[in-house]
Design goal:
alpha/beta; 7 strands; 10 helices; 7-stranded mixed sheet
Length: 278
Amino acid sequence: MKRKPIVAIIYDFDGTLSPGNMQEFGFIQAVGKTPEEFWTMSDGLAEGQDASNVLSYMKLMFDEARKNGITLRRSDFKRFGKHIELFDGVKEWFGMVNEYGEAHGVKVEHYINSSGLKEIIEGSPIAREFKHIFACTYIYNAQGEAEWPGIAVDYTAKTQFIFKISKGIFSAHDNKKVNESVAEDKKRIPYPHMIYFGDGETDIPCMKIVSMFGGHTVAVFDPGKPGKKAFARKLRRQGRASFITPAVYTRDSKTFKIVCSIIDKIKADHELGLLAKG
């Protein structure tokens, strides 16, 4: 039986599927800060110590929680995730795309590639839709409380997960299999079968890699923020994004039309490849 081609749709989270940073939907308020105060403190820590922005926000979350008597167990993070706001149509998006893929002879898989927190995303209303979530995590002590960053995902670290998705590797600590040479036709998901969704600076290296190897890139923007559209246009102008679209995920959206057309192309290219081998 001929195996269906797999299409991987890989999403950033903050600004791509959600209109804000995930910490802004409960955690920051719980520690008595406004989003502006929290991110100013985080940026100041990173700049003052010449440190990673990601590690700085993870430390600040840890410090502020402890200062306010808030425990940070996996269950606590997941509880904050329940309140994440999502762009219009996101909750229904995955079912629509899966249905379209099935009807057109491809299997669609969804992945997260984020500099946010995996534990918060796991508590979100859409967590079950993803084949795997690649994101930052903490290390937990014997009492189940966060005590140290386990994985910090910055803009360059995000690129490793593109290679892992291609080879079907879901272990975060693996650094052996991911570097093994695998022929393109032996990869679980070839790069031309990838669609990368992003909205910001941290997505540029991933967009560059996916595009370079024949995949497809989509820059989304919050339709309520003119500056975001200008940035998306810049990504397209620079060749980082193949398409730009408002972050609207309804059935009648431009976003859905783009993805359906890419699925059609991937399926057609796959069939042509089989014919060429015959």
